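Why does residue order matter? Because the sequence determines the fold. Keep that principle in mind as you read this record.
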Amino acid sequence: MKYYCIGIKGAGMSTLAQILYDLGNDVSGYDEVTDYKFTEKGLHDRNIKIYNDDNHEIDKNTIVTYSVAVPLTNKEMVRVKELGLTIKKYNEIVGEITSKFNTICVAGTHGKTSTSSMVKHLLEGTINPSYFIGSGNGHIEKDSNVLVIESDEFNKHFLTYHPTNTIITNIEEEHMECYKDLDDIINTFSKFANNTKESIITCGDNKNTHKLKVNNNIIYYGFNEENEYIVKNNTVTKDGEEFDLYHHNELLEHFNLPIFGTHMVLNATAAIIMALNYGVSINDIKDRLKTFKNENRRLSESIVKDTIIIDDYAHHPTEISATIDAIRRKYPNKRLVVVFKPNTYSRIKDFKDDFITSLSKADKVYLTNVDSNREVQSDYPGINSYLITDGIKDAEIISEDDVNSLKKEHGSIVAFLSCASVSHLIENFTKLLNEDK
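Structure:
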């Protein structure tokens, strides 16, 4: 088959293109973005052609799929329609792929990418699964029938998936442009969970997971004593987190996790339980967890002179709060500066006060203007970044091209947070630091 992926540099679409290629298909794609994005690596490794214009022919038998970030008025979308090509939604094709495997779906409002990566890592060396992780990281392992896939609730996409086993990390209000209210979100997660053939593993510390209406086996984990799997004795070391995991009152093992944050401990717990369900020994799990490295843009760290730069995908108030807490756990005595790039107007409208609360945990806050690829400001009059900065003492607005205000932040931890690309911000800040004598 031939596939043409519009918006191919998007994290999900890049991963899908890689998976389709590994399954033996002829794959190419289009993207208006000409700058390099980290999601391109897997595409380049497979020599998947990326077009930036319409000066190329497309075979009439090609199936077109597109990113949700691409409007239907996009010139390439208009062209493929005029050519009469078959167009399938992204989640339709992903759903078809999941039906071919023993599929582990990792869903939840937050933590999907990290948890998917942990499950994949713990199964490697024994089961060697295929994987589809929404950070531009996908691969089909031809000798394994197990697929680990990050499963997104945006636009109810994951309802087309076919899970064998499922993890639900948490349930919270998010993507309210797609859902009526929290009950609608919980009901949608319930439908997704009931598509699961075997077990559902979910965080019992999250009150909304207890509202799931499911027909099959559900396993709860967390710090609270009423969970089936209980995390105890969680401490911070210079290298990350340590914790004991109990099954009811029985100690399973003491684990070392080489990343920081109690939210990461919960993600690791879900991954451990899933690996146990797939027959991986507790000793293998313990050894493999010690070598885990998180995906791109998940607390990614670099040092320029005396300044620590962190790049993280956090874009929801809960995620921002968890990221700040994780940085504080690793660097309790350092000044923490956050540069946040909002990516949707609707999220500011829905969570303005929560953004103010979570961002206020930093010592200094900067915001850029909203960088939205799927919403227009005219649909959200009066919604902008100033609604957040006005509620935070000494917060400032900066532009992507002018980061001179950050010059005084050398010697601090400067964390750039967004699900949109922050590469230009980091590049300009790095240039500023290197110019500083």
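The longest helix spans residues 262-277.
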